[in-house]
Amino acid sequence: MDELIAQLLVYIKGTWKYRWVSITIAWLVSIIGWAVVHQLPDDYEASARIHVDTQNILRPLMAGMTVSPNPEQQVAIMSRTLISRPNVERVTRMVDLDVKVTDDIAYDKLVTALMKDIKLGAAGRENLLPSPIAIKIPSWLKILFSLY
Questions:
Q1: Between the chain's N and C termini, which has fewer beta carbons within 10 Å?
Q2: Is 73 helix (H, G, I), strand (E, B) or coil?
Q3: What gap in Å lies between CA 132 and CA 48, rounded to an integer?
Q4: Domain annotation covers residue 49
C-alpha cells in the first residue's frame, strides 16, 4: 500500500512540475479548435420524410373530374401545396423568422427566398412526398440567425 501511495505522489509531483506546459497546450488546442469552428460554413439543413394518403385528401377535391390523376400527379399536387405561399408564411411566423423584418417588402423577400430555397427530391416510392427537404440559408438570412 505504501508503494502505491509513493507512486501516486511521484505522479502528482511530476504533474505539478509541468503544469504550465499542460495549461499552455490546452490553451493552444482550444484556440485552434475555436478557429476551425469559426471557419465552418453556416449551412442549416433539415430533412423530412412525409407519407401522405393522397386518396383521402385529394378525393373530395378531385370529385368533379372525369379522370383521376395518377399517383405521381397526386404527389406533385401535394408537394406544390406544401410549398405554397400561405404555408411558407405560416412557417416563418412559427419559427420567428419574421421578428427582425421591418417592412412588408423585406417580409415578401424573405418568404420568396425561402420558397426558392426549399428543394424537394423524389423518394421513389408511391405516395411518399419528396425527401429530403434541404433549406440552404442565404447569406442575408444568416445575419438574422446571428442576431438571436
A1: N
A2: helix
A3: 5
A4: no
